[in-house]
Fold this sequence. Notes:
Layout: H1 2-40, H2 49-81, H3 91-108, H4 115-118, H5 120-146, H6 149-152, H7 156-188, H8 199-223, H9 240-249, H10 251-281, H11 288-313, H12 315-334, H13 340-351, H14 353-376, H15 381-385, H16 387-410, H17 423-451, H18 456-469, H19 480-486, E1 493-496, E2 501-504, H20 512-515, E3 521-527, E4 531-533, E5 538-543, E6 549-554, E7 559-566, E8 576-578, E9 585-586, E10 591-595, H21 597-602, E11 606-613, E12 619-624, E13 629-631, E14 636-643
Antiparallel strand pairs: 1-14, 2-3, 2-13, 3-11, 4-10, 5-6, 5-9, 6-7, 7-11, 8-10, 12-14
Helix pairs in contact: 1-7, 1-8, 1-10, 1-16, 2-5, 2-16, 3-5, 3-8, 7-8, 7-11, 10-14, 10-16, 10-17, 11-12, 11-13, 11-14, 12-13, 12-14, 12-17, 14-18, 16-17
Amino acid sequence: xxxxxxxxxxxxxxxxxxxxxxxxxxxxxxxxxxxxxxxxxxxxxxxxxxxxxxxxxxxxxxxxxxxxxxxxxxxxxxxxxxxxxxxxxxxxxxxxxxxxxxxxxxxxxxxxxxxxxxxxxxxxxxxxxxxxxxxxxxxxxxxxxxxxxxxxxxxxxxxxxxxxxxxxxxxxxxxxxxxxxxxxxxxxxxxxxxxxxxxxxxxxxxxxxxxxxxxxxxxxxxxxxxxxxxxxxxxxxxxxxxxxxxxxxxxxxxxxxxxxxxxxxxxxxxxxxxxxxxxxxxxxxxxxxxxxxxxxxxxxxxxxxxxxxxxxxxxxxxxxxxxxxxxxxxxxxxxxxxxxxxxxxxxxxxxxxxxxxxxxxxxxxxxxxxxxxxxxxxxxxxxxxxxxxxxxxxxxxxxxxxxxxxxxxxxxxxxxxxxxxxxxxxxxxxxxxxxxxxxxxxxxxxxxxxxxxxxxxxxxxxxxxxxxxxxxxxxxxxxxxxxxxxxxxxxxxxxxxxxxxxxxxxxxxxxxxxxxxxxxxxxxxxxxxxxxxxxxxxxxxxxxxxxxxxxxxxxxxxxxxxxxxxxxxxxxxxxxxxxxxxxxxxxxxxxxxxxxxxxxxxxxxxxxxxxxxxxxxxxxxxxxxxxxxxxxxxxxxxxxxxxxxxx
Length: 647
């Protein structure tokens, strides 16, 4: 049974990783390489002025539709949360989005039977309908896919492994497109066209990516399993009109969003124009695969280096150093000219910081969940975390518009080669590829410097504050009358020791908040092992992203908080594995959390476990049966009766 369980976990990780691979290969194709097909291959050289006006119209449609779709995006998370089917919340949207997106992508890499020339108006109408349809269903797939990790496993350690596999798959998928695009295009082209390929080759490329994305979506549906529990059932539904209100109230979320919106628009422009540089400045489109290969390898390395860098220097410093390296790379890129070596070095230096900055942004956005929860008493993870993909699309929309405009102004359209580009065209191209992105990146950095204050220390303080008030905001829709019916006031609760070790008086711990009794009556334990177990039958009422504490409510109404270590919130979950989630019903003696004491000691922190009865004032009879000596988890340590949770 254990081997089957292990095999199932490995299968799930691989399936999810392949899903991320296909998903990001699709997005890279849509956001970067499709516009190259439009500007360079959808029309032939004989189209003249008509091709320029059609390219402008198509890129304008993409730009406008992306902004329309941005208004819809925050509502998609709500729609997915409210989806209930025999296949779960997420899989139906992943499969439907995969099918529709793949079919439409393949169609868009064609001339639609020559309508682009014979009936331009009809082509533009069909293009707009197909594009917005694909974009909306891609969004459903995107939000559904990345929201699926909590449903795959309730084991925090397994979630982290799944997420790591997914990040690797995602990085490879996004970058392998750059490696294979020109080889595939040239392999299937009837005419090499100075190394640029023709319509036939570009359609083959689009079809291969579409099939890959579709197969990867099906693999996710077949290879993963959605678990269900109470935590997956929304207690409080956020209405559509409340979505934007929730997001707007969180100022740190909004400032970080502005930072990332400006930044991602800047890097998207440069990234999208790199193949143009190889094609129309260097005249060596085939060598673009070298850059794609290097970026794919570097992307994986950057992801692995982020945790130690952030731990040693802080996320904020990593962000600023990464921006500095990126700006140096843009300057070098500007003066690379026709040198292939300088171009590749500059492009690689420009890419190295991108995964690091992305992870800084992701961490701040994740931390803004607790910031918003503390500020206005509402916790909504799916809505908060849907902001990042929304901003990526905004960056893609801006990028597509500027790339299309740049191609027309610089003369980099159908039939053009490197020798056809004038000095004026090169100046315009470099201004758009390097100047505009530099201004956007600097603007985003300024906003981050002036307005984004949510760092590791501030988040730790927020989590500490939430710990103190967790019992005042229980996430339940039960009325007091219903609770009274469920709770037997005459019941006696046996409270078992949750952690093995040596008992200490709570007043002796170094954490003044616990020692003063403000958190409740209880005891402390100097642990002898790292297992934390449920002291009674009950429900998990509070968990924390740092996994260093947990709040429980017994079936009889007793509220307890188990807090591992002093100052361990600063470890941000390192060394802690959580086996249950908020909303889970647990049995007495069930393992809740496992922690690694050496990691706490290495961080220079105290590993004393503090256990308190938060609502002790609502318990008529609370008696601790043991106050000193060695204890093992499962030993009886307290007995309670005359419990009135409604008082």
